[in-house]
Amino acid sequence: MILIYEGSHFRDPKERKKIESLFKDQKIRWISESMLDHTIDELLKAPDDQVTESPVQNAVASSLSKKVYPNKKHGNPALIYVTDMPRERLEKIPDLLDKNGFDDLFIAVQTPANQSWTLKELLDEMKKEQAYFDKRKVLESLIQAANPERMKTEPKYAEAVMTCWNMLRQPEFPERLLDMAIEMLDAANRDI
Length: 192
Hints:
This is DUF3783 domain-containing protein. Pfam families: DUF3783. Helix content is 55%, strand content 9%. By secondary structure, it is an alpha/beta fold. It has 2 domains: 2-128, no CATH class; 145-190, no CATH class. A 4-stranded mixed sheet has the order 2-1-3-4, sandwiched between helices. Helix 4 (87-99) links the parallel strand 3 (78-82) and strand 4. Helix 5 packs antiparallel against helix 7 (155-169), helix 5 (119-144) packs parallel to helix 8 and helix 7 (155-169) runs antiparallel to helix 8. The longest helix is centred in the C-terminal third of the chain and has 26 residues, at 119-144. It is elongated, with a radius of gyration of 21 Å. It starts with a strand and ends with a helix.
């Protein structure tokens, strides 16, 4: 089964049909803003008639959601939550979505831990993860912008760049260290 939280992305019926065509062999359950406080497990187990809502409920929830997630490209971020899918197919989902114009979606896979989370908690966690990876990209771009001549002539500058580069080679490190590294390298690159 695939849960699709519509966010602001899938209000257009054409967009819904397009995403449904990509997963036509899967059962799809559409989830709306009024269900943010339900756990993933509840959403997976509920009968279909208990996760649908009236257009009035959807309109009220939609206006509230703009206050909850105001900064994503499409306003409230959409989420595709996948259960029971072979790994080979899971790995193809991001490219499939990108090729079809769905490049601003969160994708989550069912785990024992996240089933007990509410939909809002899962979205919040996905936003935190996205922010973390965005910061890694910022640090990478700062490393790429490093001045090769300064690296040869200024040992402290070279050490700062190499320290940041070594941090990026780690799969994970605390976000506060990432923030410090960005600040340090940004200042060093500006300090000419």
